[in-house]
Write a structure and sequence with these properties.
The protein is an alpha+beta fold. The chain folds into 4 domains: about 120 residues, 2-Layer Sandwich (Beta Polymerase, domain 2); about 120 residues, Poly(a)-polymerase, middle domain (Orthogonal Bundle), CATH 1.10.1410.30; about 130 residues, Poly(A) polymerase predicted RNA binding domain (Alpha-Beta Plaits, 2-Layer Sandwich); about 40 residues, no CATH class. The chain is about 40% helix and about 20% strand. The protein is built from 14 helices and 16 strands. The longest helix has 23 residues.
Length: about 450
């Protein structure tokens, strides 16, 4: 049995799981149809997503859409859709482009989503209206052999850490993996092609252009030709997939599909790593806002970039950074130094300008030494306001460009130097310092 056949044997769902899933889907449909019958509207349901296509790996989520006629007002779609969701699932309301209901049925997580039943994907009124077209397209082109290849590709992408279009991952969506298999025939065909990819690839189901795209990868949606299916894919995740494709083709291993768990680094190893590099750790801890991941992670990413810019504007050189989001938000920065000298070089106006004399007079009395000239400009040494990154963030952190729900810096705590080596920071430090590819762990 080949490696990929052995992986497939592990991925194919067991008969008991399939039976339990089918029973849950039937019960969900019956309950939803009963609720629809009480709405007085001409609605119908459609199973979409990986369960409908048979392309799920692991324990699947069930996606059931309630299709509304186009003449129903948006507010009525939302109101009736949520009422049906509450009657059927009694779950929680979540928000994408419009609200939907998330709950559970017989042990499976369920999304019950209202959408418009439009005749053409170019006429959609919200992003979810496109999903039924995706499901129909894939089902019309997918046979059992390609379905197995989708399972392999999804697990490969999960294993290397690039599966999922959500903000936390910024990788390949399930729909994109299905299109790639349909486009290239099987996983190996895709990996051989991807091993030669470079950022800027543009493709559709029939053609490939190796450069010219504004995104790392542009894959035009076959049901909506103006939409890039891979718009969520980041440059780093694109490059990781290309790198993994090359590595796998050179030396196939089950670890690409099922990597070993990455152990957290112990504090002694973390401290020794920084010491050997001659760099300094800096950690910012914030309370976690009550947001779903797709809303939280973009704000965390924006905030970390904003804090990095603030650090660099104040002459703290940032070499690398990472973050960990668990019960709180922990951002870690690797600095050249966590302590700056008491003075900083302060540049004034060109010497041959009217206000040069004022600059010289001011700083002759208040500077750390006498003003001087460099390249025709007035210069002096001034006392540095913040020598420690923690003091800087505590004093000026709110001046940084931060995510909306992190602007108040609730629960702000900062640790620099040896004070950063705390047990609660191990996960964030491991993300920063253990850069091994998942298949090499």
């Amino acid at each position: 049995m080949s490696l990929e056949e052995e992986v497939l044997r592990k991925l194919r769902p067991r008969a008991g799981t399939v039976r339990r899933l089918e029973e849950a889907v039937e019960r969900l449909k019956r309950s939803t149809d009963a609720s629809i019958s009480r709405s007085g509207l001409d609605l119908r349901t459609m199973l979409v997503g990986s369960v409908a296509k048979g392309t799920y790996v692991g324990e699947p989520d069930i996606d059931l859409f309630v299709l509304f006629p186009e003449d129903v007002e948006r507010k009525d779609l939302e109101r009736v859709g949520l009422r049906i969701g509450q009657e059927v699932l009694g779950g929680e309301t979540r928000y994408a482009e419009h609200p939907y209901t998330h709950g559970e049925m017989d042990g499976f997580e369920v999304d019950l989503v209202p959408c418009y039943e439009v005749k053409d994907a170019s006429q959609i009124r919200s992003a979810v209206d496109r999903t039924p077209f995706h499901t129909r397209f894939v089902l019309s082109h997918l046979d059992d052999g390609k379905r197995d290849q989708v399972l392999l590709l999804k697990q490969f992408m999960k294993g290397i850490g690039v599966y999922g279009a959500e903000a936390k991952v910024q990788g390949f969506s399930g729909y994109l993996t299905e299109l790639l298999v349909l486009r290239y025939g099987d996983m190996r065909g895709l990996l051989k092609a991807a091993s030669g990819w470079k950022p800027g690839m543009v493709m559709d189901m029939n053609s490939v252009r190796r450069s010219g795209g504004s995104a790392p990868l542009t894959f035009w949606d076959p049901v909506d030709h103006k939409r890039n299916v891979s718009s969520a894919l980041s440059l780093d995740q694109f490059c990781l997939f290309v790198h993994a494709a090359r590595e796998y083709l050179r030396s196939p291993s089950e670890r690409f599909f099922f990597p070993r768990p990455r152990a957290l680094m112990d504090l002694d190893t973390i401290e020794a790593t920084f010491r050997s590099r001659g760099t300094s750790p800096f950690v910012v801890v914030l309370d976690r806002p009550d947001l779903v991941d797709d809303n939280l992670y973009p704000q965390v990413q924006k905030s970390q970039l904003g804090l990095r810019k603030l650090l660099e504007m104040n002459e703290f050189q940032v070499l690398d950074m990472s973050c960990s989001v668990q019960k709180d938000v922990r951002m870690v920065f690797e600095l050249v130094s966590a302590e700056l000298p008491p003075s900083r070089l302060h540049q004034g106006p060109p010497v041959c300008t009217d206000n040069a004399d004022d600059f010289v007079s001011k700083w002759r009395m208040s500077g750390l030494g006498q003003p001087f000239m460099v390249d025709g400009k007035c210069m002096t040494y001034a006392k540095r306001e913040h020598r420690d990154p923690a003091a800087l963030i505590l004093a000026k952190g709110q001046e940084a460009s931060l995510g909306n729900d992190l602007r108040e810096l609730r629960g702000l705590r900062c640790f620099s130097g040896t004070k950063a080596y705390k047990t609660g920071n191990r996960r964030a430090f491991t993300h920063l310092l253990d850069r091994r590819e998942p298949w090499r762990v």
